[in-house]
Design a protein that fits this description.
Elements: E1 7-14, H1 25-39, E2 42-50, H2 60-71, E3 76-79, H3 82-85, H4 89-100, E4 106-109, E5 114-115, H5 119-152, E6 166-169, E7 172-175, H6 177-191, H7 196-206, H8 213-221, E8 228-231, E9 234-237, H9 246-256, H10 259-264, H11 267-270, E10 283-285, E11 292-295, E12 298-301, H12 302-305, E13 322-323, H13 324-339, H14 342-351, E14 357-359, H15 362-384, H16 390-411, E15 416-418, H17 419-433, H18 439-449, E16 450-456, E17 459-464
Parallel strand pairs: 1-2, 1-3, 3-4, 10-16
Antiparallel strand pairs: 4-5, 6-7, 8-9, 11-12, 12-13, 14-15, 16-17
Length: about 475
């Protein structure tokens, strides 16, 4: 390739293992500018990924650069060192051969002093990429061994995410007294017979700390509060101050795992193949059309998460992940705003197909009613033999009975019902029962109103059942 007035892009990266590397973003960009100036090349732009690992290609600046190369001819991409592009042998070869060379763009590495315009440079790519991946693997191994050592020594591994009840600074956990009071109260309320949902509402009302039902359950199960730390599936004695007495923690977890609590759980909690989150079954990707699943605290597009290959629609989909509690809150906010306004409900109905009807699957309704009845009978049996106190089952029985009554009313309706009539009934059910319902009940009420929720980046679109 001609070296006169070449148009090039620069690329710089600092990984999450920055402390193990001796060249900063500033140092890399300075080297790139000096090198291009000495060669007489025009450095059009330097793309920078700060804080991204070289172990994969899911980096915003890298993807932006590649997209630009596909649209506009660029003579070369220049990096300070090969491992700045990637530490994966497979990714290095794919990026250079399938992305750069395939679009007439050469690759230049200053540190290794080679470029792909020469046969020797192309041969060196494969050799040096092997050593780049080897170095990455060694860094990972040293990092993991160091964290195991910290775990054995009793140090908490949580980065900047301090668990409720503690403050994390300088590598140590210290007790946050305001939150510690709430943690102890959660255990006390649970042992006094309060449900997890009830505890969540009580704490949220009394304190400014953000509580959810999931947080309450996680607190009750976390042995960190009796002075333990965890790393890679192992438990060690921690050096931090416990918040909860061991006897209290043990009693709470015995109750959590007891037969009575297992029987009192909803079917979806007992059965891992049933939906367990508020928006399960409603979320769809607005980019590739795949569903969203819930795991590890986030709603994620199946295509991006690749947790279930059969649900992947586009393996290159990069739609946003959403924190479960955040998306639940935003969707409920929008639904609340809609159902609380008669004008908004009327507007939604007027904008819909006035002639649309919905077929009622009464066989399915009967099966669901029978299942609800079995759950109610089982709870009553457990109360009669003394397995569960009345206070623990009253709310659950009431919720199940309300669901059953609502379904039975639909059994008496015609087989074909105007969509607007069902929607109005769903609006009224939501107004009456959502605030006090458990997760199953709330999900059922949302499903009565919503056909689907489409996610496109940070955009959320609700599609009503009209």
């Amino acid at each position: 390739m001609s070296k006169d007035k070449m148009m090039v892009f620069g690329y710089a990266r600092v990984s999450t293992e920055n402390q193990l590397e001796n060249y900063s973003i500033e140092e890399q960009t300075a080297r790139l500018e000096s090198y291009c100036a000495a060669k007489g090349w025009v450095l059009l732009h330097t793309y920078i990924d700060g804080g991204y690992s070289g172990g994969n290609t899911d980096r915003p600046a890298l993807q932006t650069m590649l997209a630009q190369i596909r649209e506009t001819h660029v003579d070369a991409v220049v990096v300070y060192k090969l491992d700045r592009l990637s530490r994966s042998q497979k990714d290095t070869l794919t990026l250079i051969e399938d992305e750069l060379l395939a679009h007439g763009t050469d690759f230049v590495s200053i540190n290794e002093n080679f470029d792909t315009s020469t046969p020797f440079g192309r041969a060196m790519i494969g050799i040096l990429s092997v050593f780049a991946q080897l170095e990455k693997d060694q860094i990972t191994e040293r990092f993991t061994m160091g964290r195991i050592g910290r775990g054995k020594a009793g140090y908490f591994h949580g980065g900047g995410n301090a668990p409720t009840g503690y403050t994390y600074a300088d590598g140590l956990l210290t007790v946050n007294e305001y939150e510690a009071i709430q943690v102890r109260e959660a255990f006390d309320l649970f042992l006094a017979g309060k449900s997890i949902n009830a505890i969540w509402h009580i704490l949220s009302t009394k304190y400014t700390t953000k509580w959810t039902a999931a947080k309450v359950r996680n607190v009750l199960k976390n042995s960190l509060y009796i002075g333990k730390v965890h790393f890679m599936g192992q438990e060690y004695d921690g050096i931090h101050q416990p918040i909860v007495e061991k006897r209290v923690f043990t009693a709470a977890n015995q109750l959590l795992n007891s037969l009575s609590r297992e029987a009192a759980k909803t079917t979806s909690q007992r059965n891992p193949f049933r939906a367990g989150y508020l928006l399960s079954g409603l979320l769809y990707c607005g980019r590739c059309g795949a569903r969203y699943s819930a795991n590890h605290g986030y709603y994620k597009c199946y295509s991006r998460a690749k947790s279930s290959p059969k649900f992947v629609r586009d393996p290159d989909c990069k739609n946003d992940n959403w924190e479960i509690s955040t998306l639940d809150h935003l969707v409920c906010q929008q639904v609340d705003a809609m159902v609380s306004s008669s004008a908004a409900v009327d507007h939604a109905i007027m904008a819909a197909d006035a002639a649309k009807t919905v077929h009622i699957d009464k066989d399915k309704l009967r099966r669901t009613c029978a299942e609800l009845e079995r759950q109610i009978e089982r709870l009553i049996e457990l109360y009669q033999v003394g397995s569960i106190p009345m206070a623990s089952i009253t709310q659950r029985v009431n919720d199940l009975s309300a669901q059953k009554a609502a379904l039975e009313s639909q059994l008496n309706a015609p087989d074909e019902v105007p969509a607007k009539d069902l929607f109005l009934a769903a609006v009224e059910d939501y107004r009456q029962g959502f605030a006090d319902g458990d997760t199953d009940r709330k999900r059922a009420l949302l499903s009565g109103l919503l056909d689907r929720i489409t996610i496109d980046g940070q955009s959320i679109q609700l599609h009503w059942r009209l």
